[in-house]
Amino acid sequence: MPQHTSPVTLSVVTPMYNEREAVDHFVARLRPVLDGLGVTYEVVAVDDGSRDATVARLMQLREEWAQLRVISLRRNVGHQTALRAGLHSARGEYVVSIDADLQDPPEVIGEMLGAAREQDVHVVYGVRSDRSTDTVFKRSTAGVYYRVMRRLVGPWVNDQAGDFRLMSRTVVDVLNNLPEQNPVYRLVVPSLGFSSAEVAYVRAERVAGETKYPLSKMIKLTLDSVTSFSAAPLKIATWLGVFAFVLCVGLIIAGLIAWGSGTVVPGWTSLYIAVLLLGGVQLICLGLLGEYIGRIYAATQNRPPFLIALDTDTRKDNEPAEFASPSVR
Q: What are the φ/ψ torsions at residue 260 (nearest 5 degrees)?
């Protein structure tokens, strides 16, 4: 593995959204772990436009913990984009991404760092050996998601590895230079093909607060994952169109046979079925096309994916300064 010059050995990136109830528990467990590693480190807490007192509490904690760096985004942009902001800001030779809900244990970070150094790999995935604390619905929908992703992206996608991972500076630099507008890192990182290892852990219950991944966000993550990695939905639209065409041809043939035999067939039934079928298929196809066209449109606008309102690493005289994302500086 190539050597990189960095003032910090380890960066821990933590996206947060309305985590005021969890942040004290998170810091209480994370800090002793990092202090005990014997390496220089920083903790990059990225507030994703929280509406509670998350930022205020982080600023208080920073007064007693110099390695804690607080980045506040101007608005809520979603977990993956907040993680992207943290990766752009992290300076470490190695970078760990972890959520603040303590479902992924900070104590595993030391194992990850040791595995990266001993096995000379670029990525170490945190793999859940037991996720019985998740609901049956969460486990079943996650299983469907990863099965679909393995078919679309490739067999290297691990269905028990989320966003808890350690990456080398080489990997982080590659990720930061990707032109994607909506990267899904749990798919992007394994698709790059860097050497990797795994560290198993037992997934715990959320320490406090409510989940930040309700059904609506899970659906959005699935849509982003599919459209970012595959054109398969467009092919599905094509086959739906072929199926509708064949079915309509069959209805036409049946109608002509009935007309030729002199059988009286009520016309509204066949017309009703044909209109509904064609209308439904057309709307599905237009919706799929619209998703891709919308992403192309967003890419051509080249708007910054996030804007930083506050970064304590660059504040002066205790006054918040304003910063833009790296793409617009």
A: -70, -30
Scored b (16 or more CB within 10 A) or e, 179-206 reads: eebbbbbbbbbbebebebbbbebebeeb
Query: Residue 308: CB partners within 8 Å, gap ≥ 6?
Result: 71, 72, 73, 74, 85, 89, 322, 323, 324, 325
Please check whether residue 308 is in contact with residue 323, taking contact to mean a CB–CB distance below 8 angstroms.
Answer: yes
The pLDDT tens digits of the residues spanning 126-164 come to: 988 876 666 776 777 767 767 777 776 677 777 677 789
The pTM assigned to this predicted structure is: 0.71
What is the SS3 assignment for 35?
Answer: helix
Q: Which domain holds residue 145?
A: 8-212
Q: Hey, what amino acid is at 105? A: P
User: Does 20 lie in the same domain as 102?
Assistant: yes
CA dihedral over 44, 157, 229, 289, signed as positive or negative: negative
Six-digit token string for 215? 């059904």
**Residue with tokens 């017309």, as numbered in its chain:** 271
Run of H or E residues at 13: strand 8-16
Considering its fold, how many domains does the chain have in total? 2
Give the tens place of pLDDT for each residue, 190-210.
888 899 999 998 888 877 766
Q: Domain with 157 in it: what CATH number?
A: 3.90.550.10
Examine the domain organization and report whether 178 and 288 are in the same domain. Answer: no
Position with higher pLDDT, 243 vs 77: 77
What is the maximum span of the chain, computed from C-alpha positions, in angstroms?
A: 92
Question: When comparing pLDDT for 203 and 68, which is higher?
Answer: 68
Residue 311 lies in a domain: no
Tokens linked to 302: 């080249």
